[in-house]
Design brief:
Strand content: under 5%
Number of helices: 8
Order of helices and strands: HHHHHEEHHH
Structural class: mainly alpha
Distance between the termini: 150 Å
Strand order of the largest sheet: 1-2
Radius of gyration: 57 Å
Number of strands: 2
Helix content: over 70%
Largest sheet: 2 strands, antiparallel
């Protein structure tokens, strides 16, 4: 294995090869190979046992890893991606500006060719009229010219006009395509701009929502009620109330049946009218006894 690695390393420059062939590199290479073999073997065994492909395991691991990322980090990533959209828009605006200039210059060149074509059309028409006289010398725009010279001029102009006519026709189609491409690019940039604004608004809403969630979490942490503790306190209060009422009832029953402690249970005080009535009854009984004794 090491020999194969040495043969692979001979592709590096000599000074790099000398450094990489040190003892530390060999140890590191062995560790990397062992780890790679362990991962491959573990994946093969797991796939054979569970009948699930490695890509499925990898997808689940990636999903689980994404779920471990906190929302704050994902929100920062969203803002970074929105800024990247701005960079793309600016880069495309530079291309769009260059494309716009090229289209305008191409249109100016096409207009010049159209003007040249119109001039040639007039020259050809005038030359044709002058040569219809079929004389040795002809009058052309106030000048006397040899018929052969004017014929050569007419031939050159006809050739140039014919070529220019084909060029203008082709360039008109090309200009239409360029303008259409330019318009599509402008619409695309406008769409990107609108999408970026929508994403900015969405990011702001998500940030507000995140702050609200944090506030609710803080409220729950600051005031954390335990329902089981409340129920236990209510049960304890109920037991205390039952015991107090039972003690009061027991004291009343003992007093009623004469089992109350005299030191602790005091008789109920009688009213003044009851005491006076008892005194009269007691004296009346004594008076009747004395009268009976005297009679005897």
């Amino acid at each position: 294995m090491v020999g194969g690695a040495d043969r692979t390393l001979r592709w590096f420059p000599p000074h790099v090869y000398t450094v990489l062939l040190g003892k530390g590199f060999n140890v590191m290479l062995k560790k990397i190979l062992i780890a790679a073999v362990a991962i491959i073997a573990g994946t093969a065994v797991l796939t054979k046992v569970t009948k699930i492909s490695p890509m499925t395991w990898f997808g689940d691991c990636c999903t689980h890893a994404r779920n471990l990322v906190p929302p704050e980090v994902q929100l920062k990533q969203l803002k970074t991606e929105i800024n990247n959209i701005d960079k793309d828009i600016n880069k495309n605006l530079s291309r769009l500006a260059r494309m716009d200039v090229e289209v305008k210059m191409f249109e100016e060149q096409l207009d010049a060719k159209r003007d040249r074509q119109a001039k040639l059309r007039g020259d050809i028409s005038d030359m044709q009229k002058s040569l219809e006289a079929r004389t040795e010398k002809v009058a052309y725009r106030g000048h006397k010219l040899q018929s052969s010279e004017l014929t050569r001029r007419l031939d050159r102009n006809v050739t140039e006009f014919t070529c220019l006519k084909e060029q203008v026709k082709a360039h008109e189609q090309l200009l239409t395509s360029k303008k259409r491409t330019l318009e599509v690019a402008k619409n695309r940039i406008s769409e990107m701009k609108n999408e970026k604004e929508k994403l900015h608004l969405l990011a702001a809403k998500l940030e507000t929502h995140l702050e609200l969630v944090k506030m609710k979490q803080m409220e729950n942490q600051v005031v954390d009620f335990d329902n089981s503790a409340v129920s236990q306190a209510r049960e304890t209060a109920k037991n205390v109330e039952i015991r107090l009422r039972a003690a009061e009832t027991e004291m009343k029953l003992k007093a009623e049946f004469g089992y109350a402690d005299k030191n602790t249970v005091e008789p109920e005080a009688k009213s003044t009218d009851e005491v006076l009535k008892a005194a009269r009854q007691a004296l009346q009984g004594d008076d009747d006894t004395e009268v009976a004794v005297e009679k005897k």
